[in-house]
Fold this sequence. Notes:
This protein is of the alpha+beta class. Helix content is 51%, strand content 16%. The protein folds into two domains: 151 residues, Helix Hairpins; 150 residues, Glucose Permease (Domain IIA). Helix 2 packs antiparallel against helix 4. The chain is elongated, with a radius of gyration of 45 Å.
Amino acid sequence: MIKKFSYAVLMVVFVIPMFVSPVNVKANGKTLRDLYNNLSKLEKELDEINSDKSMTENRINQIKGNIQSIDKEVIDIERTVENIHTEIKQLNDDIIAKDKETKEFVKYYQLSTGENMYLEYAFGAKSMADFIKRLATAEQFINHNNKLIDDMNELIASQERKSKELAVHQQNIIVKRKELRQEQFKLGDRVVELSENTQSLSEEVRDAKATIRNYEKLGCKPHHVLSECSRIDRDVSFARPTMRGLITCGWFCYSDHRAIDIGGIAGENIYPTANGRVVGITWGSSCGGNYVTIQHNINGRPYASRYMHMAKIYVSVNQVVSKDTVIGTVGGYAGGVDQCTTGPHLHFAIAQGTYAQDFWSFGTHALNPATIINFPPEGGWYSTRYGRY
């Protein structure tokens, strides 16, 4: 019986492995090849945004040109209308003069009453031919002046119609100018948005390339699982990143603020919130200045922490750090390259997951540091890294 049982156990021991599925590298996490592919996607997205931005800027330049043309046309219309009004005034003066001239002629020859002066002028002719000529001359003079007056009145009417048409056209192109200006403003906002996206994405591309280089320096190959070729020692808890500080801006104290701002003295030491490895260093970002990203393993769960607005950085990429390692000092001076600060402070963020494997953008995986570290509320002060504030 014992022999049969032993034999059965041996059969189970040898048979079971035959039914175990081969280990799938991809099932255990991302590989370096995945990072290459993600980098290609980021670069493609960046190219698309830059193309969109370029086309938008071209449209803005086209609108500016159209607005300049409209402005020139408005000025030309103003001058034309002014000239028309001057011409109409002159025509009115000419009509008055011709009318006066005709009336004086008629009065002189007493045409209105048919009295002797006209007859004397006519019958003063030396011959019949002279008599007819004198009559024709008087009529021609009057008819000529009347025709001139009619022509000038017609020209005045024509110019007044033209002036009204120009006024309507001017009003239409002014409305068009307003529409173009509104479109220009909207496109301007679009360019600002695209520029911000380009800047953010450019930094992600830069960080992605740096991260890939870091894994390569650690000896990771394209087919290697990153969590295996870059193991991080386990830690059990977090600590505050400075010895003391005032919480000047809490989680979402303004739109999309996914971190905690710790006001402090410029030059104050900054420490890792937990043991880990430095996985990213950025210098001179337009929003964040100098900052460090550290990957952690807390009780087997991956977290990443980021420390922004640093005056100095004392660590290097791939360096293993402990809670007591001084990684740099508090900066955040206003008026420099960093446009996202108004004074010395530390922008402290934590994300759940593995940086560059689970996410590139910190905001997508960020969590409120106060939910896992004992921070005072906004406006509160702490004076130790450990224990309650």
